[in-house]
């Protein structure tokens, strides 16, 4: 007993060929695409799919104009999609390069800002130290002014 031929659903056939479900259904209705009904589901033999390796190539003159047009439109859509993907990829690469440059610039700026902040921090510490010394001197001066100096007794 021979094994039944492998078949696919209409959706799978559309995906494999790049055609729409509607185009596959129209080909089945016209009789230009072989199909079978199994368990209430329309299935297409893999060997009958356009572009199948097991299918004999039809001369272009034997293919209906509408089918040729569908093939051409499908090929053009795929070419357009691939070109769009290529352009998108190039655009993403450009954006990625620009972002890398911006990050490098921000790192440089951040480094400079950190150095400036460290220098300001050091300046503030020095100012605080000077103020603290000044305040101590002022307090000592005030204490000295409040404490009467001992005078030595004068001889009579």
Question: Could you walk me through the main structural features you see in this protein, from its secondary elements to its overall organization?
Answer:
- This protein is mainly α.
- It has 2 domains: 1-50, Arc Repressor Mutant, subunit A, CATH 1.10.10; 64-145.
- It has helices at residues 10-17, 21-30, 65-146; strands at 7-9, 36-38, 41-45.
- The protein has a 3-stranded antiparallel beta sheet with strand order 1-3-2.
Summarize the structure.
Helices cover 64% and strands 7% of the residues. It is mainly alpha-helical and 156 residues long.
Write the layout of secondary structure elements.
Elements: E1 7-9, H1 10-17, H2 21-30, E2 36-38, E3 41-45, H3 65-146
Radius of gyration: 45 Å
Number of domains: 2
> Percent of residues in helical segments?
55-70%
Mean pLDDT over the full residue set? 83
Class of secondary structure makeup: mainly alpha
How many beta strands in the DSSP annotation? 3
In what order do the strands lie side by side in the largest sheet?
Answer: 1-3-2
Number of DSSP helical runs:
3
Q: What overall geometry do the principal axes of the alpha carbons give?
A: rod-shaped
Write out key terms for the chains shown.
single chain, 156 residues, mainly alpha, 2 domains, three-stranded antiparallel sheet, 64% helix
């Amino acid at each position: 007993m021979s094994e039944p031929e492998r078949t696919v659903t209409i959706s799978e056939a559309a995906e494999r060929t790049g055609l729409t479900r509607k185009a596959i259904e129209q080909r089945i209705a016209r009789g230009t695409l072989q199909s079978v009904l199994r368990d209430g589901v329309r299935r297409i033999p893999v060997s009958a799919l356009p572009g199948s390796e097991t299918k004999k190539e039809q001369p272009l003159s034997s293919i209906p104009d509408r089918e040729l047009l569908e093939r051409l439109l499908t090929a053009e859509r795929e070419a357009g999609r691939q070109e769009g993907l290529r352009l998108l990829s190039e655009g993403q690469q450009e954006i990625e390069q620009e972002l890398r440059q911006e990050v490098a610039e921000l790192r440089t700026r951040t480094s400079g800002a950190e150095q400036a902040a460290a220098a300001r921090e050091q300046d503030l510490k020095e100012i605080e130290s000077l103020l603290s010394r000044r305040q101590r001197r002022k307090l000592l001066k005030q204490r000295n002014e409040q404490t009467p100096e001992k005078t030595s007794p004068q001889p009579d």
